[in-house]
């Protein structure tokens, strides 16, 4: 990929992020509390099957994220899976400049206690929480399409994590309004396996 092409993709992503953030913010702010409270609480049968398949071999680990702003909130889903004997983890950034993070296990008896604020303002585990290698990673996103392309924040944290964990199942979580037919991608972008919105579960 030529340098000018790469720079063009970077600029396309920047513009699309701005557009989709505004679109998401307006969409979420217009939702009534009754809808917000039940969004992303219905666990699709295929997702449960993925977890059950992982349980045949060991106690699986599912990594989630602490949402910020109008991001889709996956934590009720995390609580449900924890009750199904799935271990739950959250990411913790350990090198902001290099775009690197680890996943740390949470206490199943008190999932979201003992969290602290990370360098970008998101809640993350304490550094002493056990580091793990998740079997399933639920990732936030700004945009997606039905080919599995994901537009993230631009730091490359999740793409590096996916590259380091090639066997993990990659599931994007976002609002249906974030779907975009064309997502600019470069050689470092890793596609998702599934996408969960408030309306549907999309298998790539």
Automatic annotation (TrEMBL):
- Kindly give the Gene3D superfamilies that the UniProt entry links to this protein: NagB/RpiA/CoA transferase-like
Recorded GO molecular functions are:
5-formyltetrahydrofolate cyclo-ligase activity; ATP binding; metal ion binding
As its record notes, the protein acts as a catalyst of: (6S)-5-formyl-5,6,7,8-tetrahydrofolate + ATP = (6R)-5,10-methenyltetrahydrofolate + ADP + phosphate
Q: Which GO terms describe its biological process?
A: folic acid-containing compound biosynthetic process; tetrahydrofolate interconversion
> Which EC number(s) does UniProt give?
6.3.3.2
Q: Which cofactor does it need?
A: Mg(2+)
Record key words, sorted: ATP-binding, Ligase, Magnesium, Metal-binding, Nucleotide-binding
Record flagged with keyword Cell division: no
Residues binding ATP: 13-17, 150-158
Q: Where does substrate bind?
A: 71
Q: Does the keyword DNA repair apply?
A: no
Protein family:
Belongs to the 5-formyltetrahydrofolate cyclo-ligase family.
Instruction: Quote the protein name from its UniProt record.
Output: 5-formyltetrahydrofolate cyclo-ligase
| Species the sequence originates in | Sphingorhabdus lutea
């Amino acid at each position: 990929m030529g340098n000018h092409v790469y720079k063009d993709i970077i600029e396309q992503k920047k513009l699309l992020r701005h557009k989709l953030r505004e679109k998401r913010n307006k969409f979420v702010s217009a939702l009534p509390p009754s809808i917000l409270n039940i969004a992303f609480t219905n666990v699709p049968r295929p997702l449960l099957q993925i977890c059950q398949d992982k349980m045949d071999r060991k106690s699986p680990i599912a990594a989630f994220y602490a949402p910020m702003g109008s991001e889709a909130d996956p934590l009720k889903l995390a609580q449900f899976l924890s009750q199904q004997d799935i271990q739950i983890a959250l990411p913790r950034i350990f090198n902001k400049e290099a775009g690197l993070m680890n996943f740390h296990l949470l206490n199943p008896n008190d999932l979201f206690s003992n969290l602290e604020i990370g360098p970008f303002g998101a809640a993350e585990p304490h550094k002493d929480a056990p580091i793990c290698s998740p079997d399933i990673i639920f990732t936030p996103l700004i945009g997606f399409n039905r080919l599995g392309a994901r537009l993230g924040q631009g730091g490359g944290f999740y793409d590096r994590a996916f590259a380091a964990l090639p066997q993990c199942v990659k599931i994007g979580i976002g609002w249906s309004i974030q779907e975009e037919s064309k997502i600019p991608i470069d050689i470092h972008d890793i596609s998702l396996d599934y996408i969960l919105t408030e309306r549907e579960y999309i298998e790539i």
